[in-house]
């Protein structure tokens, strides 16, 4: 029985490792469609394996599932057009909870990914080859008065998010093993994020690079730090001259011409909150209005059928204080090992653009936890040994 349990857990961890290449292969096969179905089906397999392995759910998780079942019934009644977004919200919460559970400790994820680092390099290489072949055949994609890297995905944001999380795992490997060639993977991911022109992901990736400098260089290595900074700026200057930043600059210029560098994020956020006032404000605040009604309201109020581009506002307006409370609880618990760095990257994405709506990256949220948890685990070990 014990061997069977170990095998189930190994399959669970292996699926986390190979997911990026499974994702892009599925995207090419489905021509960019049905990706939420693919990613959520993948999450379903992960959840089934996890439950089969641990054999028991905590009372807290059972209560949360009951609450979700109640909201699910409500969503089916009022919001069938955008029903998939609530399903995505549920799966995001479940995966955040699983990755925060002590049934599989963070150090166990770390030990596995350390053992399989060469396999992940292969996974990432295959991902890049598939993307390269697709772009060579189909070219870049028109968007924001320019051309952006989108690959087989329906939105460049999805590709940018995937690159960011792979970059996080590469950064973990580089910091812990100092393998120089990993810098190439990090640089390629960073360059591809720039080419997608997704600015929220770019800011998060810059914070990841800042974390590299924070972890790698001590106070006694000031000269070495300056040298690496100089090399970084030289690379940026060369990339700028070769047009790597053209799409990003064109998109930012277009946003400024339309009145806001953030493409009106603050106006969208305020408008989304006002959706709660359409009807019974107290009932709406507790139970939400549903994502369909949120999009309809923004379509009327700001002439754009869009969500809030902020996880916490989307959760509040779409699913009420109940949904928001559960999401914040799971999100904070997920980020607790290194709260500042996690909130500066994953938290920033959730606030500035959205996280749970990008279902493709839900299975690999653990990559961020691996990067920012290891140093704290090491410090705890040292503290206990003293």
TrEMBL record:
The chain crosses the membrane at residues 12-31, 37-54, 61-77, 83-99, 120-138, 158-175, 182-213, 225-245, 312-329, 349-372. The keyword rRNA-binding does not apply. Keywords: Ligase, Membrane, Transmembrane, Transmembrane helix. Residues 185-328 form the O-antigen ligase-related domain. GO terms for cellular component: membrane. It is found in: Membrane. Pfam families: Wzy_C. This is O-antigen ligase domain-containing protein. It comes from Agathobacter rectalis. InterPro entries: O-antigen_ligase-rel_domated. GO terms for molecular function: ligase activity. It is a multi-pass membrane protein.
């Amino acid at each position: 029985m014990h061997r069977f349990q170990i095998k189930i857990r190994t399959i669970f961890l292996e699926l986390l490792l190979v997911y990026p290449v499974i994702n892009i292969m599925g995207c090419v096969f489905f021509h960019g469609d049905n990706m939420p179905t693919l990613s959520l089906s993948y999450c379903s397999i992960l959840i089934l394996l996890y439950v089969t392995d641990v054999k028991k759910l905590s009372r807290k998780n059972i209560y949360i599932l009951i609450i979700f079942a109640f909201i699910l019934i409500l969503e089916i009644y009022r919001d069938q057009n955008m029903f998939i977004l609530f399903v995505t919200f549920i799966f995001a919460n479940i995966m955040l909870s699983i990755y925060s559970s002590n049934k599989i400790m963070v150090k166990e994820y770390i030990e596995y990914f350390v053992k399989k680092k060469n396999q992940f390099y292969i996974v990432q290489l295959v991902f890049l080859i598939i993307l390269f072949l697709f772009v060579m055949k189909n070219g870049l994609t028109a968007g924001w008065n320019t051309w952006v890297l989108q690959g087989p995905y329906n939105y460049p944001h999805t590709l940018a998010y995937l690159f960011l999380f792979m970059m996080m795992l590469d950064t973990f490997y580089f910091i812990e093993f100092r393998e120089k060639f990993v810098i190439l993977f990090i640089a390629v991911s960073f360059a591809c994020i720039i080419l997608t022109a997704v600015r929220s992901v770019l800011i998060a990736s810059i914070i990841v690079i800042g974390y590299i400098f924070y972890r790698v260089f001590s106070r006694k290595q000031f000269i070495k730090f300056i040298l690496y900074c100089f090399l970084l700026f030289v690379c940026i200057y060369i990339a700028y001259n070769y047009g790597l930043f053209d799409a990003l600059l064109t998109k930012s210029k277009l946003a400024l011409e339309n009145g806001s560098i953030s493409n009106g994020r603050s106006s969208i956020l305020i408008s989304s909150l006002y959706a709660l006032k359409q009807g019974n404000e107290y009932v709406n605040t507790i139970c939400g209005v549903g994502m369909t009604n949120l999009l309809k309201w923004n379509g009327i109020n700001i002439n754009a059928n869009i969500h809030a581009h902020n996880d916490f506002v989307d959760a509040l307006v779409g699913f009420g204080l109940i949904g928001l409370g559960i999401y914040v609880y799971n999100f904070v618990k997920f980020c607790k090992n290194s709260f500042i760095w996690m909130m500066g990257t994953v938290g920033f994405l959730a606030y500035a653009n959205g996280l749970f709506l990008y279902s493709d990256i839900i299975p690999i949220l653990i990559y961020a936890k691996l990067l920012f948890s290891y140093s704290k685990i090491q410090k705890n070990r040292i503290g206990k040994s003293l």
